[in-house]
Design a protein that fits this description.
23% helix, signal, Outer membrane lipoprotein carrier protein LolA, twelve-stranded antiparallel sheet, outer membrane lipoprotein receptor (LolB), chain A, alpha+beta, protein transport, 5 helices
């Protein structure tokens, strides 16, 4: 039994520690601006297929998120606290948050994820996760009934910045996004 405890103690620095929203605030940065590249993989359960896309994004705190898809089809989505606008397929999602409370909530949550605003996310999600050194993994489970209608869970990974996001929808669809070349 003594050897078991010695082994456990010797491995303890290698084991990941439980994660809280306070820990995430300490581990992550919330720059005024952030830009980078993304690779997105959207699995559509009804078609049993994955659609891959890539592009660039830029973020200005409390102002806007520009999500520019470069391939397979060029598209631009601009999200502000007031609503969505865009070109091509993004235009179909456009709307004003004053007249659409669901759109307002989606916008608030997307801004919170992109800006590491853990206080906002704490109001809408429970958290499980771990940290190891400067890297962390978090799973967000919706607390709000409105969010639970669409989202099962969101899995996030990163260090000072978010590098990986997975969104699991109630419909069975999944979105996986990798963020690279991040520049504040």
């Amino acid at each position: 039994m003594r050897y078991f405890w010695l082994l456990l103690l010797s491995l303890s620095p290698l084991l990941a520690q439980a994660l809280t929203f306070t820990d995430l605030s300490r581990l992550t940065q919330t720059p005024a601006t952030l830009s980078g590249q993304f690779q997105q993989h959207k699995y559509l359960q009804a078609l049993d297929t994955t659609i891959d896309s890539n592009g660039q994004f830029s973020y200005r705190r409390d102002k806007e998120i520009r999500w520019q898809t470069l391939a397979p089809v060029a598209d631009l989505l601009v999200m502000t606290p007031q609503g969505l606008s865009g070109s091509n397929t993004a235009a179909a999602m456009a709307g004003n948050t004053d007249s659409n409370p669901t759109l307002a909530l989606v916008g608030t949550l997307f801004f919170a994820v992109m800006s590491a605003d853990w206080q906002v996310l704490q109001q809408h999600f429970s958290l499980t996760g771990s940290e190891q050194g400067k890297e962390w993994k978090a799973t967000l489970i919706p607390l709000d009934d409105d969010i639970r209608l669409a989202v099962q869970r969101i899995e996030l990974q990163g260090d000072a910045y978010l590098h990986h996001l997975e969104l699991y929808e109630v419909s069975g669809d999944q979105v996986r996004i990798e963020f690279t070349d991040l520049t504040p």
